């Protein structure tokens, strides 16, 4: 019967869980200040209005792929107004849901501020190209891909997305070669982890409330998952570069994002499913096996390319 719940009923039923998790979040999250993470002493005026020095790539110590990944992560954060619109529409702006929506938005806003300040101060990125890319990306906006589905699809999506974003920030920091960048992105990644826990706990409660709907939502979302920044210009090319560098690839997606969330929810062992729920779980299991195979194929291909390159370099 629970699986006949409408979205409104579901959101109402989940509200006490939202309140508990909001309070847990507020007592766990540590206040932090973006300005403390930015090496302002490295900054200088740019050309244009202030007549400073124009940007040139040699001014940056970052590798090309670290730069690409930071740009993708920043543009993803920049699209916050669209995300706010989508989650405020989905969850509403009242009660504990509304408090969460606003708090989450404010925390995400900090990420874009911090990363932009770091990139501009260290001259890590062409400021004109970055601003133009931001205009194009925000001009496209972000649309919840599960508008025609249940609110649980939205909750499932953000559970995986927050963890994907966490991993992406953390690994970008690691390969940046700049301890200051690593420290900043580590801080941002810690926030994304708390966001993931919040949504994953809601999803866990949904599995108890409406197991068939929750299983269907998780199955659909895992099968169609796209990064939140997928509408960034040239995202395909950028994401290949990011995958080749091991910042975010299919293996990481499978092992460090999808499986940990499913394991925590005990989704694959969920009991009390009807035929619909069982069907969704079977689909999910089948998809995971294929994802795992594709991940293995990708890493094998990447290893082969790396070996060829190394052999060529040794001959040169
Ligand atoms: Fe963020
Ligand atoms: Fe987040």
What does the model show?
- There is one protein chain.
- The chain has helices spanning 7-28, 64-78, 80-91, 95-121, 127-140, 151-175, 179-209, 211-224, 235-244, 250-265, 275-315.
- It has eleven helices and no strands.
- The protein has 316 residues and is mostly helical.
- The model has no long low-confidence stretch (mean pLDDT 95).
- The chain is globular, with a radius of gyration of 21 Å.
- The structure holds fe (ii) ion (FE2) (2 copies).
- One fe (ii) ion is lined by residues 77, 108, 111, 165, 192.
- One fe (ii) ion binds next to helix 6 and helix 7.
Helix-strand sequence? HHHHHHHHHHH
The helix/strand class is mainly alpha
Estimated radius of gyration: 21 Å
Please report the total strand number as a whole number: 0
Report how far the terminal alpha carbons are from each other.
70 Å
Outline:
globular
Give a short account of the largest sheet.
Answer: none
Low-confidence stretches: none
Mean pLDDT score, rounded? Answer: 95
Strand content: under 5%
Helical residues, percent: over 70%
Total helical segments: 11
Bound ligands, each once: fe (ii) ion
At a glance:
Helix content is 72%, strand content 0%.
Furnish the topology, listing elements before pairings:
Elements: H1 7-28, H2 64-78, H3 80-91, H4 95-121, H5 127-140, H6 151-175, H7 179-209, H8 211-224, H9 235-244, H10 250-265, H11 275-315
Helix pairs in contact: 1-4, 1-7, 2-4, 2-6, 2-9, 3-4, 4-7, 6-7, 6-8, 6-10, 7-8, 8-11, 10-11
This protein binds fe (ii) ion (2 copies).
